[in-house]
Structure formats: C-alpha cells, structure tokens
From TrEMBL:
<keyword id="KW-0862">Zinc</keyword>
<dbReference type="InterPro" id="IPR003796">
    <property type="entry name" value="RNR_NrdR-like"/>
</dbReference>
<keyword id="KW-0238">DNA-binding</keyword>
<dbReference type="InterPro" id="IPR055173">
    <property type="entry name" value="NrdR-like_N"/>
</dbReference>
<keyword id="KW-0067">ATP-binding</keyword>
<comment type="similarity">
    <text>Belongs to the NrdR family.</text>
</comment>
<keyword id="KW-0547">Nucleotide-binding</keyword>
<keyword id="KW-0863">Zinc-finger</keyword>
<comment type="function">
    <text>Negatively regulates transcription of bacterial ribonucleotide reductase nrd genes and operons by binding to NrdR-boxes.</text>
</comment>
<keyword id="KW-0678">Repressor</keyword>
<keyword id="KW-0479">Metal-binding</keyword>
<dbReference type="InterPro" id="IPR005144">
    <property type="entry name" value="ATP-cone_dom"/>
</dbReference>
<dbReference type="Pfam" id="PF03477">
    <property type="entry name" value="ATP-cone"/>
</dbReference>
<feature type="domain" description="ATP-cone">
    <location>
        <begin position="46"/>
        <end position="136"/>
    </location>
</feature>
<feature type="zinc finger region">
    <location>
        <begin position="3"/>
        <end position="34"/>
    </location>
</feature>
<keyword id="KW-0804">Transcription</keyword>
<dbReference type="Pfam" id="PF22811">
    <property type="entry name" value="Zn_ribbon_NrdR"/>
</dbReference>
Length: 159
C-alpha cells in the first residue's frame, strides 16, 4: 500500500480491526518514510453470477428490494429487512466462495423470510421457485403447517 502523502511504496500496519461480522477489516497504517498515518479498508469480494452469465458485486440493497416486494402490505419493517439482508450475506459468505449463483442468493433469502412472514415467504417462493399451479401452493403450505405442528409442544397427557 503506497503512502497517500509522499507516495512511498511501503507502509506498515499499526492496527487492524475486524468489523461487520468479519467481512470488513480496517487497518491503520504508518508510512516509514514520512511517518504519517492513514487508514485502509479491506473487504472480501463476493460476486453474484446472474442468469445472463454476467457478474455483479453482492448487494444487500438488492436482497432488501427483492424481499420488500414480497412483503408489500405485510407487517415487516425496514429494520427487519436490513437484518434479513445481513443474514443472507452471512449465509452466502459462509459458503466460502468468491462467486455465487444468483439462484443461491434466492435460496438464502427463503429461510429468513419464512421466519419473518409466511405470506411474504409464499409470495417469494411462488415467484422464485416458479409455482405454476394451486398444487404448488398447497404443497408449500402443507410444508409450513407440518413444520408448525412439529414446533408445537405436545398437549398434556400425550407426551
Ligand atoms: Zn509517506
């Protein structure tokens, strides 16, 4: 890293700080030539491969706008969507790949969206998984019901 003040070609790290759940590293550097300090930010790259084959940087904003469409008229706040986008980014980054398919991003949205709002989840899944009949909705709803039942504590005397 070149010194931004005197253009010296070397600098040394005096402090490193990991932020944003480990995806961003901020460093304080000092120039051995002029002694001035400056900061740098390192971000691990994460690209999304679109259906067209083009790649673009992963964007939480895109995750939010996609999920927000499914949440229209539902009691889901912007703050909840922010958290959802963070969860999506964390699960995508945990794959440990520099590039992921747009399809995987969509899959990563489904699970946290289901926890937020089941109607929004069904809307998103219907578009994303290309539901084309009532049977597809029925199957998805049956799955939600089965999971809800599994979470209910057993009634008294039945355990
Ligand atoms: Zn310098």
């Amino acid at each position: 890293m070149h010194c931004p003040f005197c253009r010296h070609t070397d600098s040394r790290v005096v402090d490193s700080r990991v932020q944003e759940e480990g995806t961003v590293i901020r460093r304080r550097r000092q120039c051995p030539e002029c002694g001035r300090r400056f900061g740098t930010v390192e971000t691990a790259t994460l690209s999304v491969i679109k259906r067209s084959g083009a790649t673009e940087p992963f964007s939480r904003d895109k995750v939010i706008s996609g999920a927000r469409k499914a949440c229209q008229g539902r009691p889901v706040s912007d703050a909840q969507l922010q958290i959802l986008a963070q969860q999506v980014e964390e699960s995508i980054r945990s794959l440990g790949q520099a590039e992921v398919d747009a399809h995987e991003v969509g899959l990563a949205i489904l699970e946290p969206l289901r926890c937020l709002d089941e109607v929004a989840y069904l809307r998103f899944a219907s578009v994303y998984q290309a539901f084309d009949s009532l049977e597809d909705f029925e199957a998805a709803i049956a799955l939600l019901r089965a999971e809800q039942d599994a979470q209910q504590p057993a009634p008294e005397g039945m355990a």
